[in-house]
Amino acid sequence: MSTVNTDQQATAPPALAKRRWVLPAALVEDLYPQSGRPGGRPRRTARDWVVDFALFLLAAAVGLLTVDALEQEPGLSPAMAVVDQLVGALSCAAVWLRRRWPVGLAVAMVPFSLVSATAGGAALASLFTLAVHRPLRYLAWVGTAGLLTQPLYYWMRPEPDLPYLASIAIGTLLTATVVGWGLLVRSKRQLLLSLRDRARHAEAEARLRGEQAQRLAREAIAREMHDVLAHRLTLLSVHAGALEFRPDAPREEVARAAGVIRESAHEALQDLRQIIGVLRAADSDDAGRPQPTLVALDALVAESRAAGMKVTLADRVPDPAAVPASVGRTAYRIAQEALTNARKHAPGTEVTVSVAGAPGDGLALSVRNAPPRGEVPHVPGSGQGLIGLTERATLAGGTLEHGPTPAGGFEVRARLPWTE
């Protein structure tokens, strides 16, 4: 089987992919496009051959039963009987063309069934095919024409054992039964195709949801990498810049700066290994990824102080461990990014970190630094830190504001929800 058909099998309902031989050719063409002949006509399946042969035998059986009745029909000459049988035989043979020309065959059967009693079975088979394969407007026109010819047929060739009106009623009932059967088969096929379309739409939506989940996961990991690594790498940059600008610094300061650089590089590598481990594991949860909460804020401030920053912490939260993990993690990341920005853009200034709140009142966080003094060394950055902080606060259901203070410094203020 070609690659095209294999791909198309994957889009069809799995329960039908292995049972194509029991499906009608028209349905197979809808489920598996380009599976027919080079000219575009679908190939007959095993089921089609069985159904076509059964309809041919049914039409022939009706014709043979009618042949016996021809001998008892009064006023019918032998020549007319031979013509009737020839037309009936041609009509039965034409049943094999019902799939290729359903409308043409049904239209031709209207006059044929008017002049030939043995063509009645073929006429019913053509009407059934029209009901299955073509829109209702074709069926309405051909079916109405067939019903209108029945009174004329029974007037020309009355049934010897039945009244005139009874013959018309039986013929109309038989036509309606065949049409109803064909419409039932058509509705079942349309239902199957609609289920196929719904399955394809569901697969497409599931694929889109999976892609969106992957994109959101990648964005979350990217934010995590920025928050974790930017803090460490800023320490490296600041202390490396200090060594560059003060090559004559005392040995103790040089040793302390080198120690901070070494420790920050080691911790950055550790954090990077943890994040890459999450990527390799393809785990949907956050296991193995650095996830500090508000409890770790003291350690963050101590780390910044060890790096040479002047940081004052005003923690007015009675129990930091009681803060929800998602809220505490967001507050920690905001404080971490704000301290990183203060270290880059206002080195040597005093920074005040304030956090307060209670269940039901929300959590308020503020990081403020004094205006920088002297020339500030240029530290490259992406400029996306404050945008990421705003996004984090919004996703957590809170707000974040930032901007210069009246004294010339800079302040980042966040308010996060803390439900009871």
UniProtKB/TrEMBL annotation:
<dbReference type="InterPro" id="IPR011712">
    <property type="entry name" value="Sig_transdc_His_kin_sub3_dim/P"/>
</dbReference>
<keyword id="KW-0902">Two-component regulatory system</keyword>
<protein>
    <recommendedName>
        <fullName>histidine kinase</fullName>
        <ecNumber>2.7.13.3</ecNumber>
    </recommendedName>
</protein>
<dbReference type="GO" id="GO:0016301">
    <property type="term" value="F:kinase activity"/>
</dbReference>
<dbReference type="InterPro" id="IPR003594">
    <property type="entry name" value="HATPase_dom"/>
</dbReference>
<feature type="transmembrane region" description="Helical">
    <location>
        <begin position="162"/>
        <end position="184"/>
    </location>
</feature>
<feature type="transmembrane region" description="Helical">
    <location>
        <begin position="103"/>
        <end position="131"/>
    </location>
</feature>
<keyword id="KW-0597">Phosphoprotein</keyword>
<feature type="domain" description="Histidine kinase/HSP90-like ATPase">
    <location>
        <begin position="330"/>
        <end position="418"/>
    </location>
</feature>
<feature type="domain" description="Signal transduction histidine kinase subgroup 3 dimerisation and phosphoacceptor">
    <location>
        <begin position="218"/>
        <end position="282"/>
    </location>
</feature>
<keyword id="KW-0472">Membrane</keyword>
<dbReference type="InterPro" id="IPR050482">
    <property type="entry name" value="Sensor_HK_TwoCompSys"/>
</dbReference>
<keyword id="KW-0067">ATP-binding</keyword>
<keyword id="KW-0547">Nucleotide-binding</keyword>
<dbReference type="Pfam" id="PF07730">
    <property type="entry name" value="HisKA_3"/>
</dbReference>
<dbReference type="InterPro" id="IPR036890">
    <property type="entry name" value="HATPase_C_sf"/>
</dbReference>
<keyword id="KW-1133">Transmembrane helix</keyword>
<keyword id="KW-0812">Transmembrane</keyword>
<keyword id="KW-0808">Transferase</keyword>
<feature type="transmembrane region" description="Helical">
    <location>
        <begin position="79"/>
        <end position="97"/>
    </location>
</feature>
<keyword id="KW-0418">Kinase</keyword>
<feature type="transmembrane region" description="Helical">
    <location>
        <begin position="49"/>
        <end position="67"/>
    </location>
</feature>
<dbReference type="Pfam" id="PF02518">
    <property type="entry name" value="HATPase_c"/>
</dbReference>
